[in-house]
Amino acid sequence: MFNSLFEQVDSIIVRDPAARNRLEVITCYQGLHAVWLHRVSHFLWNIGLKWIARVLSMFSRFLTGIEIHPGAKIGRRVFLDHGLGIVIGETTDIGDDCTIYQGVTLGGTSLYKGVKRHPTLGKGVVVSAGAKVLGGFTVGDGARIGSNAVVLKEIPPGATAVGIPARILHPDLPQSADSKTKEYFSAYGVTPNVDDPVSMALKGLIDATIEQEAKIAQLEKVIAKLSNSSADATVSSDTKRDLGAIKEWLKE
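Above: the chain sequence. Below: its structure as tokens.
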């Protein structure tokens, strides 16, 4: 048991450069306190003491500012960074090594009881500040969700989701579900070298326009040569008329 507790403390030190030592993390990190209290309330929930479990979860919310339903499943080394305002629903399933920042909601959109209403986070997922993940779908291992994103559908492993509603990006970086490795952990889900899909689409339109303008310039040169040779008697009046029409069209 104590090995598991210290394992979680050490994982926080790895992911938070502000954490100086174990004592500071144990005494000052409300996200850690919320997870520890949830372990107890989840145990009580599973053995049928649901009212007591709910009371303990309410006490935890009062103490930490983090609301976790006692029915939610939380894996090992989960880090609720800053923590204030996090809401985790009843059927949420959070995998090992996930990092969740302040203001995140892992919520449900269904009103039916006894069904999977809340999301499942794979291993090593990073959910950034203010993000809303709503629905009973899966966020793949190593995925990242940007700040204030609203995620309404499944995210593939290793992808980054940004925007409202969230759009999927595929980072050109190696992915790892093991957030204990500093090389792959991205604070606040920030992924370098990734373009927004809207900006990529605009870039494609600009490139196509430049290519089209180059082709038009080549066409104008060809027409100019034909116009110069139109003085030749062998060029018919119909050809001259067609060349004139094309030149007028290019000027528009």
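The chain is about 40% helix and 15% strand.
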